[in-house]
Structure formats: C-alpha cells, structure tokens
Write a structure and sequence with these properties.
about 325 residues; alpha/beta; six-stranded parallel β-sheet; three-stranded mixed β-sheet; 11 helices; about 15% strand; globular
C-alpha cells in the first residue's frame, strides 16, 4: 500500500477526531507524504469559504470525508436539527467543490443509522431503501444518506469517483467519554468505573437492554477505509463492520465484568432503546476490497478501558 499513497495529495476531513487520528497515523505509516488535515479553527467546512480554503491549501487528489456531528441517543434526541444541518451542508458543499476542483476520488464515511428501523438482520446494502430510519437518529442518518445519493448522481452525470461506506458504532482508545455526547460503550465504561470508585451499589442504564448493536474497533475501521480508498471504485454503498451482533444487556454485563463492577444494573425503561437490532452483512467489504475486522470485542474493550484509566492518571487494567 505504500506505493499507492506515497506522492498522492490526500485531504482527510475530521482528521483530528476519534477515527481521523487513527486513519491519519496509518496513512503516514503507509508513506502518505502529502497529507492535509483541515482544522475547524482554520477551515469551517460548514461554510463555502472554509471548504474553498481547504481545497486551495491542499489541492487533493483524494478526499476522505470523516468530519461530521454525531453522538449517542441523547445527543441525537436533543439536537436533531443541528445533526441534520451540519452533516448535510458540510457533505453536500464539499462533494460539489471537490468535483469542481478536480478531485480524483471522494470517500464518504456514512453510517448504519441510515438503515431502516426494522431492516432484516444482518443488514445488507440492498436493504438500505426498504424503510425509514429509527426516529431518534433519523435526522443524522438521512443527512448522511443524502451524500450517498449525491455521490451516485455525480458519478452518473459527471463521472465523479465517489464511494460510500456504511460504518457501525466505533469504539476504542481516544473515544468520547462525555456522558452528554458519548455512545454506549464509553458511557458504560465511565459509569461503571465511577460507581466502583465511589462505592456505589448500582448503576442506571438507559433502555431495556433488549436492543442489539454491532461495534467496530477504531483501528479496524481506519484500515477498512484505507483499503476501500485504494481498491474500491464502485457506485454501491458497502458495509464496514465486525459482523458480530451483541445485545445491549450482554454488552453491559461484559463491560461490568471488565471494569470490575459487581453491583446491580438498573434498566431505565423510560429511556429509549433506539433501533431494535443492528448487525451488518460484511461480506461485500471482504469481497470488494479485502476487509475483515481483526479485533475481538473483549480485547478491544480491555484496550479502551486501559486507555481511559491511563487518561485519568489511574493506571491501566482494573
């Protein structure tokens, strides 16, 4: 892969974020010596001026678009308008400007939230249009889904090489542990560790525990994106995940075990579960660009917990 990336001008939006930092590190290790990461303080990609400035500063051959606004169920419920606007306006304007400026390839990181609420598990790419997304994250999922439509339309009219990846929930070291915006894994890790430290006998968890999710370790996700960027040039979206579905109840019990919390778990059924089930058919990623996840969930959770404890100055491994 070094020969592919060396000498190519690559712009990675969101390169300072959770996934972006891992992807940028991998790119540099693969020999990417013309790499540009626009920072929000310098280039607000929600504005035309910010987009134009970033493209003029980098003249990229390849754009990998990771930037966006995201969060867990609470964040999606509290600011659906911002979720829709920020993700839609950023992507739509960036894809158009990339086309006009002569970008050779555009890689969009989409989301599992674009799938219908009651899609049959495992989700296959052909099921993407079989219904409406789950209500609590529909604004976010539909905004991302429109970038798929745009990319396909631009391919048809202009021959623009735009590919779209449908990613599941990510986790790993460096994740967002703010309880106001975090996803389920970092939120549970923090809750259990804080309860253990305070000597609390119980932890409250949103929902019933009956919903299921699929999780992809952040380093695996970065590897999958780079494999797709190098090897895939098709119009159809491709799932990017681990292919392993787990219930929220089983996930919660596993994180309690790994953090050493032995108290009670109280399910707050007044809070929403979100989408009933999530699990991807990942066969296309393997067939089209050779990607399969390599990090078992238990190992990835251990690494995430260790990182979080070290970030608090507590030391690793509970």
């Amino acid at each position: 892969m070094k020969s592919y990336w060396r000498g190519r001008s690559v712009m990675v939006t969101g390169g300072g974020g959770f996934l972006g930092r891992r992807l940028v590190t991998k790119l540099r290790a693969l020999g990417a010596d013309r790499l540009f990461v626009p920072r929000k303080i310098d280039y607000d990609l929600r504005t035309q001026a910010g987009i134009d400035g970033a493209l003029e500063a980098s003249h990229p051959e390849i754009v990998i678009h990771l930037a966006g606004l995201s969060g867990g169920i609470g964040a999606n419920r509290s600011m659906p308008g911002q979720m829709f606007y920020d993700n839609a306006i950023m992507g739509v304007q960036l894809i158009e400007a990339a086309r006009v400026s002569g970008v050779n390839k555009f890689v969009t990181m989409g989301t599992v939230c674009s799938y219908p609420k009651f899609a049959q598990v495992p989700f296959r790419e052909t099921d993407l249009w079989s219904g409406y997304p789950e209500e609590t994250n529909a604004a976010y999922g539909l905004a991302k889904k429109m970038l798929l439509v745009q990319g396909q339309a631009y391919r048809d009219q202009y021959g623009f090489n735009s590919i779209h990846l449908l990613g599941v929930n990510l986790y790993g070291p460096g994740d967002d542990f703010d309880l106001g915006t975090s996803h389920v894994i970092p939120a549970l890790i923090r809750k259990f560790l804080e309860a253990k430290g305070a000597g609390n006998s119980a932890v409250d968890v949103w929902g019933s525990g009956n919903a299921s999710r699929e999780f992809l370790y952040v380093d695996d996700a970065a590897s999958g994106i780079l494999l797709a960027a190098e090897h895939y040039d098709g119009a159809d979206p491709v799932n990017l995940g681990s292919g392993e579905e787990i219930s929220i109840e089983a996930l919660t019990q596993l994180i309690a075990e790994l953090t050493g919390f032995s108290g009670a778990i109280n399910w707050d059924r007044s809070k929403p579960d979100g989408q009933p089930r999530r699990g991807l058919d990942t066969s296309q990623a393997l067939a089209l660009f050779g990607f399969s996840a390599t990090t078992p969930l238990r190992d990835g959770l251990r690494a995430t917990i260790d990182w979080y404890l070290e970030s608090l100055g507590v030391g690793s491994r509970v």
